[in-house]
Design a protein that fits this description.
Oligomer: single chain
Helix content: 55-70%
Number of domains: 2
Largest sheet: 3 strands, antiparallel
CATH architecture of the largest domain: Up-down Bundle
Number of helices: 9
Strand content: 5-15%
CATH superfamily of the largest domain: Chitosanase, subunit A, domain 1
CATH class of the largest domain: Mainly Alpha
């Protein structure tokens, strides 16, 4: 079963590689983040963490990600390599987008004529079974491609976000 620490540390390498838990300015203008926890998206959680010293923040940051993003479906994945990528994308773009891209990647691997998952952005036993049955390396590559396509679609819909595309794509390709 997938390991929480592996997924968490992979994600933190993207959000706060130094594990500094420092307050940094982020988008939207006027917002701040501590280890990726954005004051605009998570105001109450952010304030609770910001009120602490940097050393005291680390366990709260970890608890935040476990409470808001980790779930039983991740824990049941057999591939840590895939799990860490799907979890990281959930943190970066939201759980629904992450699961939908996983389902789309699984459908790509299944090929035409094969039974397809409904890409409804919800975890379920069919998504989990398909992920656990797929070749881990092939699925990770297909997931990376779907993730990059997701970011490209965001920029196509809103070109002002193109300033983020290179960083998003680099994160997706890890």
């Amino acid at each position: 079963m997938a390991n929480w620490n592996i997924a968490y540390n992979w994600m933190m390498d993207n959000e706060d590689a130094a594990r500094a838990c420092a307050q940094v300015p982020v988008a939207p203008p006027g917002a701040f983040a501590i280890s990726g926890i954005n004051s605009a998206a998570w105001p109450e959680e952010y304030e609770a963490i910001a009120a602490l010293s940097q050393d005291q923040r680390k366990p709260l940051v970890q608890q935040f990600y476990e409470d808001h993003f980790w779930n039983n479906w991740y824990a049941q994945m057999v591939s840590d390599d895939l799990c860490k990528r799907v979890f990281d994308f959930a943190v970066n773009a939201g759980s629904a987008a992450s699961v939908r891209c996983l389902q789309q990647a699984l459908n790509t691997l299944a090929g035409s004529g094969a039974a397809q998952l409904v890409d409804d952005s919800d975890w379920g036993p069919m998504t989990l079974d398909a992920a656990n049955s797929a070749d881990p390396a092939a699925l990770a590559a297909a997931f990376q491609a779907e993730r990059a396509a997701f970011y490209q679609a965001i920029v196509a819909a809103n070109p002002s976000l193109s300033i983020y595309l290179a960083a998003w794509t680099a994160r997706a390709q890890k």
